[in-house]
Amino acid sequence: MLTKRIIPCLDVRAGRVTKGVKFKNNIDLGDPVEMAVAYSDGGADELVFYDITASAERRPIDIGMVAAVARTIRIPFAVGGGVSTTADMERVILAGAEKVSVNSLAVRNPEIIREGAREFGAQCVVLGMDPVRSENPACPSGYEVTTRGFREFTGMDAVEWARRAADLGAGEIVVNSVDADGTRAGFELTVTRLIADAVPVPVVASGGAGEPAHLADAFGVAHADAAIVAGMVHTGDWTIAQIKDELAAAGIPVRRTW
Known about the structure:
Elements: E1 5-13, E2 16-21, E3 24-30, H1 32-41, E4 47-51, H2 63-72, E5 77-80, H3 86-94, E6 99-102, H4 104-108, H5 111-120, E7 125-133, E8 143-147, E9 152-157, H6 158-168, E10 172-176, H7 189-196, E11 203-206, H8 212-220, E12 226-229, H9 231-234, H10 240-249
Parallel strand pairs: 1-4, 1-12, 4-5, 5-6, 6-7, 7-10, 10-11, 11-12
Antiparallel strand pairs: 1-2, 2-3, 7-8, 8-9
Helix pairs in contact: 1-2, 8-10
């Protein structure tokens, strides 16, 4: 049986890790490279870094940070933000990242998924998506895709967009619920399950993790293959080892090295 992955997420702004609630009221948490080493040594399966202001500031991702992380950790990691072309993807991969995440860019230019998968392999291309509950009749699943940190509604149905992205070549889909982001009240299980059951690629639950039971629900109820954690580990309330111990006790397969 494949093990479920636990993936700490580090949102980076101005070279520092930051965390907010529903994309607002961010606070400084520390140095991204130092935190990456701590999570790698602590049992994380992967990491993901989002340069959360790169796109808005119309600048490329901090390649120096990507290279520094690659030199110091022993686990795979993905990066997103400030990626506009396949040339940008190539720079990120050559700097040492295993995966590149595209979100708003893919909505504007879906062909970037196909181009990236063709040049680097589907396993390197991750679609990030920010769905919210919606009564828009154009969204029969009840969830609409948003972009630019929840600032723009696209009129795109979340499940249909996930299916299209997988058809284009996305090797993984991260479902980040804006409604749950940073609340630590649990993942948005309904939309995660709808997407996980609709696509043939791994789905990662994101947004809302506050305790191991929330991850157990993401895996068992929502059929996610992996779960992103942030606040619950950044604050020190839980370690990766403690989370995995709790999941293992609940019968969920996880990778443990201790």
